[in-house]
């Protein structure tokens, strides 16, 4: 190995910052500086010893250089020449002298200076085999990379080969070959000459591999382009030869045969033959030819005359519908009616049915069942989030990437012209600057117009009148009225616990057992366990969470069978705690005693019905009305109407007519974190207020619902089926309903209808006579607060024992 000699000294020099370049010792370099600090440093150096410290920026910016962004190793150089350019920059010619390491940067006036430790490692003058080997390796790496860098002159290679100093050779090659500033800086920071050459060789090898890969990719691209040009010229020559021989174009003849064989409507056939003629006149490989071929292929794939034979047997359809779904009687009856009428009048235009209901009640799955019952093919079009009218009608075929709309694409996918098309989540359509897809559906869902539906892509009328359209929605509030007017709306209500039980037993358990590789011999879930899951682990309108709970039982049972080597698992009600954890819900129960100012209302939520207590308190005050419990605007108005009505009947019930001036009224709906709204709590509010003002308890086994007017009339409400089911589950004996809701009693579950006593009322007076007990109770004396004291409503409201309410995120619709 060669001997080394180190030369080290310290100095302080002004700093000139380089951008996108690095200076090396013994190599002259020309560069421009534009920042004020570097220009000032160069002027100071020129006025003195002409020596400066040249250092590169690690993170170049357009602003003035910062000390934190400068490298710690640079090059001490002597300025040979400096010229001011017309742009105000300073062009400098400098020659590097030695490497230097920064001890500390500091700001001196307008420029940056640096305390430096200059260090030079010198090999002795004798030749060494190791040094020669390293230098030869560097030259070989340079020659390899020279093949991919034609801008490197042969003179540069010759000059490199003439250098005998390994330190100078590494710096010379790095300054002329390396592109990245970071790579150049790595070479500069290596003080040992041999280590520097080794690092340079590694960097050159990496650069060689990269350039070789880029060259291969470029060669492949050029080869593909050449092949395409060659194919184009050959096809053009073939076309000319065939024209000279009179043989014509086989592709054109194929399209013409397909068009005539398809038995298209006259307008469609004329349009496609015209496009085929255009195709014969354009160059084979042109963009227009590709567009025309794509257009003809898509149009010929459409089922212009293909259709499936529909099932006209009502009883067979009934068996299929009953086998696939429990409940949903309205939907089943409507489909059976459609099949019966279609049997009598085959040319009847199909009706558009809209299934509306909360998530998980089976809207999408029932559509697939209807397709099976009617013998039609089934295709689903998801409309959720669709915001472009072109998604329905398609794009003009001249656009890049144009395609037909979702309706025509669905028909091409299913291959017949009379399928059942499910337009799923029609209430999730949105509109923006590209158009309104809901407006485009107006033509699709109109039986009088859709027989000539014209997609923008195919530009030919297509008959959609034989399609059976079923749409689904969670709510009709976001669906435009003209669209609703074109559909027959069927509401799917929440499932009753009995319906959920039957669905779980007849469908969900078998489905999940199959999915988890189990059989009914391996896992048995008892009826009591199913009922407990429905009551305590799920609270929803549909059965999705119920299915998830059953899937969880299957997973844990499968694990137990595999790990514990058991052959059969039986899950009973008492086992659910270990499988599903603590119950998530508790059943709402009515209070065990008659209370003053507390009345049982009935609410409708997305998860079904629920008991909603209304509490009223009468306090000494100045006639203020306090409403709490996250009440919506409509429910607040119901409270104001209730107070006004109570004022109008005050004398009849022995209430001080001036109570609205001398008393403060507080109406509260428990579960304050749950938003509540709707008008049907009006009857409950009046009852609670009259009870609190007359100190007459409200019967605890009565629940009520109904909207009131200022004259005391009771108006009908919705959700009676769900509300009465909640009353039944809570232990209510009697339910007060609006007289006009008697027509809805037939829709109520049979078990609920026979277990509850329904009291129809048309006037609030009838409600009060039924709900209030005759004998008032004596309330304890309460301390009266001072006039300016803040009233603690919870401390003084005589409401009896407090009920424990479960926190819930449901939104009550009263």
Please provide a written account of the structure.
With 814 residues, the chain is α/β, with parallel strands linked by helices. The protein is 41% helix and 19% strand. A seven-stranded mixed sheet has the order 18-19-17-16-21-24-25. The protein has a five-stranded mixed beta barrel with strand order 1-3-4-5-6. Strands 8-9-12-7-13 form a five-stranded parallel sheet, sandwiched between helices. Strand 22 and strand 23 (714-715) form a beta hairpin. Helix 7 packs antiparallel against helix 8 (266-281) and helix 21 (633-648) crosses helix 23. The protein is extended.
Number of strand segments: 26
Taken as a percent bin, the fraction of beta residues is 15-25%
Helix content class: 40-55%
Shape call: extended
Enumerate the strands of the largest sheet in spatial order, edge to edge or round the barrel. Answer: 18-19-17-16-21-24-25
Q: Average pLDDT, to the nearest integer?
A: 82
How does the major sheet shape up? 7 strands, mixed
Any idea what the radius of gyration is? Answer: 44 Å
């Amino acid at each position: 190995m060669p001997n080394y000699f180190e030369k080290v000294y310290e100095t302080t020099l002004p700093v000139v910052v380089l951008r996108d370049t690095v200076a090396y010792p013994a190599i002259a370099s020309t560069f421009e500086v534009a920042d004020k600090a570097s220009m000032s440093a160069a002027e100071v150096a020129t006025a003195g010893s002409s020596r400066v410290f040249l250092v590169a920026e690690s993170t170049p910016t357009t602003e003035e250089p910062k000390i934190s962004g400068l490298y710690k190793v640079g090059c001490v150089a002597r300025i040979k020449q400096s010229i001011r350019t017309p742009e105000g920059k300073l062009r400098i010619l400098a020659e590097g002298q030695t490497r230097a390491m920064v001890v500390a940067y500091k700001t001196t006036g307008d420029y940056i200076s640096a305390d430096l430790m200059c260090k030079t490692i010198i090999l002795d003058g004798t030749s060494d085999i190791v040094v020669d080997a390293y230098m030869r390796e560097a030259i070989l790496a340079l020659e390899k990379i020279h093949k991919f860098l034609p801008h490197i002159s042969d003179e540069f290679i010759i000059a490199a080969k003439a250098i005998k100093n390994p330190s100078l050779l590494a710096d010379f090659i790095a300054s002329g070959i390396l592109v990245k500033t970071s790579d150049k800086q790595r070479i500069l920071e290596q003080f040992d000459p041999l280590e520097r050459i080794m690092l340079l060789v590694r960097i050159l090898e990496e650069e060689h591999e990269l350039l070789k890969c880029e060259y291969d990719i470029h060669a492949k691209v050029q080869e593909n382009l050449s092949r395409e040009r060659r194919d184009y010229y050959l096809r053009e020559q073939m076309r000319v030869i065939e024209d000279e021989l009179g043989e014509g174009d086989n592709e054109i003849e194929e399209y013409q045969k397909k068009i005539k064989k398809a038995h298209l409507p006259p307008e469609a056939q004329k349009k496609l033959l015209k496009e085929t003629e255009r195709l014969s006149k354009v160059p084979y490989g042109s963009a227009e030819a590709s567009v025309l071929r794509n257009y003809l292929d898509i149009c010929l794939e459409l089922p212009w005359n293909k259709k499936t034979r529909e099932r006209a047997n009502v009883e067979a359809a009934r068996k299929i519908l009953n086998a696939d779904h429990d409940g949903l009687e309205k939907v089943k009856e409507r489909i059976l009616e459609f099949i019966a009428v279609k049997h009598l009048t085959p040319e009847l235009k199909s009706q558009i049915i809209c299934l509306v209901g909360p998530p998980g009640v089976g809207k999408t799955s029932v559509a697939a069942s209807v397709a099976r019952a009617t013998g039609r093919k089934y295709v689903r079009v998801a409309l959720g989030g669709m915001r472009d009218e072109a998604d329905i009608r398609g794009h003009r075929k001249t656009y890049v990437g144009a395609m037909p709309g979702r309706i025509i694409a669905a028909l091409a996918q299913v291959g017949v012209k009379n399928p059942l098309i499910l337009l799923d989540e029609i209430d999730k359509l949105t509109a923006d600057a590209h158009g309104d897809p809901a407006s485009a559906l107006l033509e699709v869902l109109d039986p009088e117009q859709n027989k000539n539906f014209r997609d923008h892509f195919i530009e030919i009328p297509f008959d959609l009148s034989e399609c059976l359209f079923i749409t689904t929605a969670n709510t009709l509030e976001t669906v435009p009225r003209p669209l609703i007017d074109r559909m027959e709306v069927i509401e799917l209500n929440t499932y009753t616990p009995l319906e959920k039980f039957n669905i779980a037993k007849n469908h969900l358990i078998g489905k999940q057992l199959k999915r988890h590789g189990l059989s009914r011999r391996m896992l048995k879930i008892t009826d009591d366990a199913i009922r407990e899951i429905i009551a305590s682990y799920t609270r929803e309108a549909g059965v999705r969470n119920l299915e998830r709970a059953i899937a969880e039982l299957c997973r844990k049972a499968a694990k137990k069978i595999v790990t514990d080597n058991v052959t059969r698992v039986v899950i009973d009600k008492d086992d659910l705690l270990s499988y599903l954890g603590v119950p998530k819900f508790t059943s709402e129960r009515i209070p065990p005693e008659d209370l003053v100012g507390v009345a049982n209302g009935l609410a409708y939520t997305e998860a079904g019905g629920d008991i909603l207590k209304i509490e009223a308190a009468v306090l000494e005050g100045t006639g203020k009305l306090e409403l709490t419990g996250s009440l919506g605007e409509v429910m607040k108005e119901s409270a104001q109407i209730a107070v006004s009505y109570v004022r109008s009947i005050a004398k009849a019930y022995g209430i001080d007519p001036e109570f609205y001036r001398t008393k403060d009224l507080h109406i509260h709906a428990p579960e304050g974190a749950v938003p509540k709204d709707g008008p049907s709590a009006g009857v409950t509010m009046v009852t609670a207020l009259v009870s609190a003002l007359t100190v007459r308890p409200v019967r605890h086994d009565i629940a009520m619902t109904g909207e009131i007017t200022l004259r005391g009339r009771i108006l009908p409400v919705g959700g009676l089926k769900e509300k009465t089911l909640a009353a039944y589950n809570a232990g209510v004996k009697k339910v007060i309903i609006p007289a006009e809701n008697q027509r809805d009693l037939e829709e109520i579950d049979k078990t609920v209808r026979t277990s509850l006593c329904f009291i129809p009322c048309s006037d609030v007076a009838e409600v009060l006579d039924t709900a209030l007990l005759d004998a008032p109770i004596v309330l304890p004396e309460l301390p009266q607060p001072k006039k300016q004291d803040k009233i603690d409503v919870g401390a003084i409201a005589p409401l009896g024992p407090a009920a424990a309410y479960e926190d819930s995120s449901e939104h009550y619709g009263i």
